Amino acid sequence: MGITMRRAHTIQVDGHADSYTNILRKYTRSALQMIHVTRISKTGIRQEQNKAVVLTPHQCVVKRTIEKAQAKTIITKIAQQMNCKMGGALWKVETNVQRTMFIGIDCFHDIVNRQKSIAGFVASTNAELTKWYSQCVIQATGEELVNELQTCLKAALDVWCENESSMPRSIIVYRDGVGDGQLQALLDQEAKQMSTYLKTISPNKYDFFIVSQSVKEGTVTPTHYNVIYDTIGLSPDRVQRLTYCLCHMYYNLPGTIRVPAPCHYAHKLAYLVGQSIHEKPNRSLSTLLFYL
Questions:
Q1: How far is 180 from 226, CA to CA, in rounded Å?
Q2: Same structural domain, 118 and 252
């Protein structure tokens, strides 16, 4: 795969939770690029606990997983995950739109423990869709609409300008997790927050369905899209083709998924923070896909 690695520094610890987390804290430092954890079994220290104590991207695997007959395929997959968690790109697609930022927004609600809701915001930060910026917004329990989108959007545009020579020409937002009854509230609240960066609102709203993934068994439920805010003026056909292209850009699967990659990245981010960390991730991780 052309990935060059130095020999890893290997540390062995017992299965006790305190000794395990203390070792992770001790060896987490700015010069460290990746922590790879190999466990004997799934019992004991949970992977989510590992992620909660480190500020460095890490990969966790159960020992018997890499001892299977298809170990070469599994290890290749692990190497790909480690690569993109450290900022590398695995593939890209041609979208036929120039200098466009794509944003995905989704929320996680802990309905069991009634913890605060977590909104995940993920934005592409280069024209090739290979670099991403992420940020979490911690909200009241059960709250779906996001209140700090101006802050998130400004930070994402700052990172874009670091990677590119000028601002993006356009911004396309994919919002997941809202029902048809919330579309007007979404338009009034979230779209209004980002109106500083957008000039006018298009009255031509429309919706469409796409089946982006292929399955070998059963049937696929189409994904329903509503275009509710448009200042670019792309044709419906172009929006549908663009959406389909983005379904190929999820770096945890060499194929297509049912929603555009930024939406699913936002879902993974919000779920990890809401389920395991319960606080905003360290800012040093904001340009890495650490939540895959």
A1: 9
A2: yes
Per the structure, the complete domain to which residue 76 belongs is given by 17-85
Catalytic residue among 58, 248, 264, 267: 267
**Which amino acid belongs to residue 263?**
C
267 is catalytic: yes
| Catalytic annotation, pick one of 58, 109, 176, 264 | 176
- Taking only the tens place, the pLDDT of each residue in 155-168 is 999 999 999 988 88
DSSP 60: E
Catalytic residue among 58, 106, 230, 248: 106
pTM of the predicted protein model? 0.71
Residues present in the chain in total: 292
* 153 and 211 part of one domain: yes
Q: Which helix (H) or strand (E) is 17 found in, with range?
A: helix 17-27
The catalytic residue among 110, 144, 148, 164 is 144
pLDDT per position as a tens digit, 187-241: 888 888 887 655 543 756 789 999 998 888 888 889 999 998 887 888 889 999 9
176 included as an active-site residue: yes
Q: Show which of 28, 62, 85 is a domain's final residue.
A: 85
